[in-house]
Amino acid sequence: MNTINRFLFKDLNIRGQHLSLNDAWQEMIQNRSYSPLVRQLFGELSALAIFLASGMKHQGKLTLQIQGDGVVSLLLVEVSSELKIRGMVRANGTIKPSDSLDKILGKGQIVATLYNAQTDHSFQSLVPRNSQGLVATFEDYFSQSEQLDSKLWVSSTKDNLSAMLIQKMPEADQYNTEGWHRVCTLAGTVTDKELSELDAERLLHRLFHEETLQLFEADWVSYECTQNKERFEKIIFDLGEQDARDLLNEQGEISIHNEICNEHLFFDEQDVNRIFTSKFPEE
Question: How far is residue 136 from each of residues 131, 132, 153, measured CA to CA in Å?
Answer without folding.
Answer: 8, 6, 10
